[in-house]
Amino acid sequence: MATVEECRTALSSLVDQLAELDPATRRKHVIERTVGCRVTDLDVTFTGRIHAHGADGMAEHPGGGAPATDIRFTIGSDDLVAFADGRLDFGRALLTGRIKVEASFGDLLRLRKAF
So what's the pLDDT on residue 23? Predict the structure, then answer.
């Protein structure tokens, strides 16, 4: 099981990957949304905001009490680290239930194209 710090680092890496996308691709596939990532085995939720310029406002919420978000991911700590490192394919993880996503269909398609 990964630690909260490792998960924080993994999320930071994903934010960096988003920032490294070509600006035209980012504008096309990333629209402003609030995002939450619940790490089930650590009982912590990270929230923030993604937009055409990247992401910001990342906050950590141990236990319950995280604010509602437009897009919600649920994932185990080891899978989050593997996803951020490129060892876990988003589509395959989604189909096998290792990552669960609550979002509109349009948001899901945009995110898949962005990552």
Answer: 85
pLDDT in tens, 41-64: 999 999 999 988 888 889 999 987
Residue 67 contacts by C-beta under 8 Å, 6 or more apart in sequence?
Answer: 34, 36, 47, 61
What three-state secondary structure class fits 69? coil
Distances (CA, A) of 1 to 67, 89, 114: 25, 19, 27
Q: Are 71 and 106 in contact (CB under 8 A)?
A: no
Q: How far is CA 45 from CA 10, 25, 27, 67, 77, in A?
A: 13, 28, 26, 9, 11
Structure tokens at 14: 């994903």
List of domains in the chain:
4-114 (3.30.1050.10)
- Amino acid 51 reads H
Length of the chain: 115
pLDDT tens-digit map of 93-111: 989 999 999 999 888 877 7
* pLDDT surpassing 90 at residue 30: no
